[in-house]
Amino acid sequence: NAGVTQTPKFRVLKTGQSMTLLCAQDMNHEYMYWYRQDPGMGLRLIHYSVGEGTTAKGEVPDGYNVSRLKKQNFLLGLESAAPSQTSVYFCASSRQDLIPNTEAFFGQGTRLTVV
Amino acid sequence: GENVEQHPSTLSVQEGDSAVIKCTYSDSASNYFPWYKQELGKRPQLIIDIRSNVGEKKDQRIAVTLNKTAKHFSLHITETQPEDSAVYFCAASPGTASKLTFGTGTRLQVTL
Question: Please, what is the Cα angle at B44 between B42 and B48, to 5 degrees?
Answer without folding.
Answer: 135
